[in-house]
Structures
1.
Amino acid sequence: MTGMTSSSRPLLNRRLAEFGTTIFAEMSALALSTGSINLGQGFPDTDGPEEVREAAVRALRDGRGNQYPPGPGVPELRAAVVAHQERRYGLAYDPDTEVLITAGATEAIAAALLALVEPGDEVIALEPYYDSYAACIAMAGGTRVPVTLRPHDGAFRLDLDELRAAVTDRTRLLLLNTPHNPTGTVLTRAELAAIAELAVERDLLVVTDEVYEHLVFDDAEHIPLASFPGMRERTVTISSAGKTYSFTGWKVGWVTASPALVTAVRSAKQYLTYVSAGPFQYAVAEALSLPDSYFAEFRADMLAKRNILAGGLEEAGFTVYRPAGTYFITADIRPLGETDGIAFCRTLPERAGVVAIPTAVFYDHRDQGAPFVRFAFCKQAHVLEEAATRLKALSV
């Protein structure tokens, strides 16, 4: 009877039956057991700015946030989020009615979907997708409708005709991620304008995950969808501090949206964590006001790291899709004579002492993602150089 009730009904809610232990847990365990360099899970191996860390220590010592913070988030952080959106994008929000602080972007996504989606509603997501999207849609009782990004001219591209064709009378919401994890694609102004027109035409809500907003490279530009005509009142914009400031364990995220949308999302969020990360909220408020030079240096550092790992992967024989954003690289294993990314990633630690993530786990159409694997480059340069050296064993 292990794992079953007396009625033989499975213990796990059937909506979550397809979601077992995440691939990240499996690959991280493999990294530990083999002593491999872990380029699987996307977290930095160094902390972010010292002044931001000290701001958290100062808040702890001053007793700010050690008890429950306000439900919507501390006023200082909500004001800082508003100032950031205005300064970077010219988007004006009311800190009291149009901002909600969450336990990272992951909770913001969960709360938004639980609030806005009912059983039977269809949710369109770009695949490959961050794995929590599928689980959150399932928990809300929605139906996942994937639209596949496909490789073309060195990048993964959205087919706007395919997106339009995916919209039905049951479509409630578009769930977008740009810059996009895991492909590194950054949607262009023209693509975003077309998505905005579609959302207005079909009266769709949109949830945008913009956690990599400050990590765009080369000629790419991050443009919030909420800045397009007709989108401010129908878009829930989500971002967080973890990726931008390299404090992923703090789990501080935020939602900006119209008062009606924020009220809806807060109604769900208050029964998830209620509140979280009290002292860290004050520190992130200070982080958001760092000078532009911080963001420029952060991007330049990550660009150099991207190029180290991309060059190493190319030397090892992979086809490499150099990302326009995020801190992940997608590589095609077929030039190495391989076709199954999951099997490849399970043997890579023994073969080369490096851990990656098979991209197929982020697809409904597993065959579309089968030959692709994802590497994280948010590590110290010497770690990436060592990984590049180890990966050369694959081309011998």
2.
Amino acid sequence: MANAVELRDTHPADSPEHERGVRELRAIREEVLLWTDFLEQTLTGTGTRGQDRVMLLAAAYLEGAPLELCIKAATAFGSRDESVARRYREGRSPRRRLRDVGVDITSNDTAAFHSRPDLALAAIRMDWHHWADERSETSDWLTRITGPDGVAKAWAEQIGSRLLDLSTTEADPPFFTILDTWTTTSPDEARLRIVTKLITRAADTEELARAAHKQLLDWARKPNVPQRKVVAWACEGRYGARWPHMALVRLRHILATDDEATRIAATALTAHAAKSAEGLKQVVETIETWLEKYPTHLAAPEPSSRSPTPRTASWTA
């Protein structure tokens, strides 16, 4: 615990060390408070597989959201049959149902976990682990409620953050699959900025770093403009500052095509060069290497000896 507290308190809030300290403290608290035992007794011990489980799952992903939104999200799980939606409002009231599975209802009628800190993430983890045969259905549900017309589209960042935390410990993690879906089905700038923030956090997370680097490289190579924009923004931001060499490799792939992402990549490259003499040297040396190694690359010089200027001229500034 002392080591975790030191990591959290002696490093900047956006650093991977701080993030690791927070995760370790959360894990310690879950173990001390026995949330896993509580959840097993509350849900699996009584054989509950229906409304109670899904209501808890909705509240866990949408902690802080209005209760009515949690109910709507829960009714969207699985079948869209009206009778399924009706069952969530029959029998015990939604408030009683949520309280019975450990959720607090605030005076503003929102779902909370004040009396059981970190129970939300513990519930998400246990659900993913215990009902492994329903992982695809859970992923489809999350994709549906966060889609362009989804009831929880405004909560995409929090849901993505919970998926990131889940994916650090569980097999068959859903985090990158959901991000990939978001960049193809919800390509508006606000959503893409959320994806950029989340994948940068993943790169800072020891358990997900390798997968995050690979995902950014895959997106940089693809023709999908929204995905390429995410990579360019990441390389322009904290990802590029921490891993400049990896960022430059991904920018080279983006610069091969002239589109919106290319212009962001050019800005990222010139910004990196302008930060310091070392940054300028690194960019110049990298470009020289590109021109030597990839003479036929679309961002390389024109074949005409009279025109030595690279085709993507803005990034040579």
3.
Amino acid sequence: MSRRVRFLDTRPLRSSRPFRDLWIGSSASQLGGQIATVAVLAQVWDLTGSPVGTGAIGLATGLPMVLFGLLGGTLADSVDRRAVVRATTTGQLLAAAGLCAQALSDNRNVLLLLALVAIGTACGALGAPARRTFPVRLLSSDQVAAGLALTNVSFQAAMLAGPALAGLIIARWGFPAAYAVQAVTVAVSMLAVIRLPAMEPEGVDAKGGRRRPERGGWGIILRRPTLWGSMATDLSATLLAMPIALFPLVNEVRFDGNPQILGLFLSAVAVGGITAGVLSGTVTRWRRGGLVQLTAAGVWGVALAGFGLAGPLWLALGCLAVAGAADTVSVVTRSALVQLETPDAYRGRVSSVEHVIGVAGPELGNFRGGLLASVTSASFSLVAGGLSAVLAIAAVAATNAPLRAYRTPSAGAEPTARGVADAATAAG
């Protein structure tokens, strides 16, 4: 295999100017989002000095993500998706400007701060399903996975660099500067969206002046084994084996609560993810996407069980890096499969379900892990969770032959040609 194939597949950036613009804008926005996340956390702590206050950030972000994410799915299947993302990005820009303004005015009201965070999150969640459908409309089917890998690499890079950059900005210029950077990066994202072509969903009916999406948009997930199997695989991995909530306890028990080591835990996951992204050219060219996702999700579970048993720091970090790499491969292949297997008329609603699973699964998984560790130990929770995830993923693989056999459509093929039959079934 050639050297070029082994590394990050950059064909989408060369072959599609709209996708290149979108990637640049999304990368900038992700970096600004990470900077703002740290700023909000620090400002809430500064205002309240309470873990209850910082915990409230989770409510201000989690609830809008779920509620508006599902609403955004229906919206994305009813109107021009570019218009949806334009409007919601405008909302995010106004929320970022509001955060900057409240910091400049030396706001001492934490409820105002959390309200602005909730508004920005709601706008982002409302546009997320529509935004998720862009790569499959801008790229040929054989480049969709590569495009998603590029997006994932930029996200992992933002996670790695954003918090450190936020610390520098806040230390030197304060909270207003951090929120101003977020506003500028959202504006860059807005410019990219403005340049996109119109993206009307296929199959939208107009009756009596109203636009209505195709019926059966939610049920298609259950009708297609590839879709429910891919989502069940992701939910099994995150719900049963999410480790983040256990990092402080593991650090306290094994490494005397060293804050630098706690940071290394998070960095190891990100480094593994970035490494897998940089080397994703091989994976994104493999057409057995279902089998790749199942395998990667299984490796995630095994690696986290290994982290639960690891004694030396180097082994613990190695297990986390492997888990991060496996997660990247699983996310990229799952996202490509979901987009390619869903008829365009239903992509908004299916994407909203994928979005909610991606948001709720890790949060519930962290809660599960912490609850189990509170009555047993961190090691038991990690090992039990990792092995349970492997068993659940094996069960999905054993009972879902279409997912095991799934192949990415070749270039020029219409991956959702059977959407007409699905629509007829739903209408019947």
4.
Amino acid sequence: MTISTRGAGKAPAVLVLEDGRSFRGRAYGAVGETFGEAVFSTGMTGYQETLTDPSYHRQVVVMTAPHVGNTGVNDEDSESKRIWVSGYVVRDPARVPSNWRSRRTLDEELASQGVVGISGIDTRALTRHLRERGAMRVGIFSGNAIQDEGILLAKVRQAPEMSGADLAAEVATKEAYVVPAVGTKKFTVAAIDLGIKGMTPHRMAERGIEVHVLPATATLDEVYAVRPDGVFFSNGPGDPSTADHPVSVMRGVLERKTPLFGICFGNQILGRSLGFGTYKLKYGHRGINQPVQDRTTGKVEVTAHNHGFAVDAPLDKVSDTEFGRAEVSHVCLNDQVVEGLQLLDQPAFSVQYHPEAAAGPHDAAYLFDRFVTLMEGQRA
């Protein structure tokens, strides 16, 4: 990414997809050029949490909601210390934010963090294009970065693809830290940070869990040095087929039969640890309105998603694995994608979506209670 100036707002801008289609609009946020994978998010709200979610590293997010920025940006709702998206695409940016918690405009925040965006384009047409042809590489160019579209297209096609990308260590913490339990401490959990969101350890802390957040490079010995009652594997960016180290650590946890919970990338890591494959979805699931059925109860939940890869596990049978019997516990009702796994012979489960979703919905918050129940059972 290169930035030529800051927050010009009215500069011309062009978005170029790797298949040659382009959209012209106006600069939003920083002015310059940026590259990434074009994906769309269907959330009507929660854009601050989306922008600061480390799972969006190296992705250009297209908002399907037409009006974005109306609540501005505050100092409380970010999921990490910075914006992680590579670029941002909106149709109709708010001219003036209107919320008592707002401290600055979204345009100002994007510009101050050097995030190149574009506004004033037909995001409906762009979303339909991505649904029909799949997520693909994209570039946003504004101001002096605009050149002949043939040159811009060549730049886009030189950008790295998401398939094969090993990104977790780029977004994870470099040093371990502790999130203390709220109230009386009941359990200790070692959380492997593969791109963890700030709300995740908070949701555990609310349940009396002291969370030791460890780098993505943490070894099995470092995990057990904190004497955990349970181990958690977080969400994160990139291709799960590259995550050999987290898979190795998780297999060590499974061998010791320590209660285990994984979210998003952690679900894919569990899938690989059990011997299942993973694959890239055509355009992925992103947003806060995805219907998922918990097959263990029959309950349907509205859930928050951000994933472009999925686990390839059979939906119609219990599978025998090295660590006992496993089954698909949750499934997306839109397309039958695997959204959760559980072991039947030891305390381990995972989901592909986000039960900690700060912007909502909160239908799946009970999964943290399920993790607590596993640790209680193990202790008993």
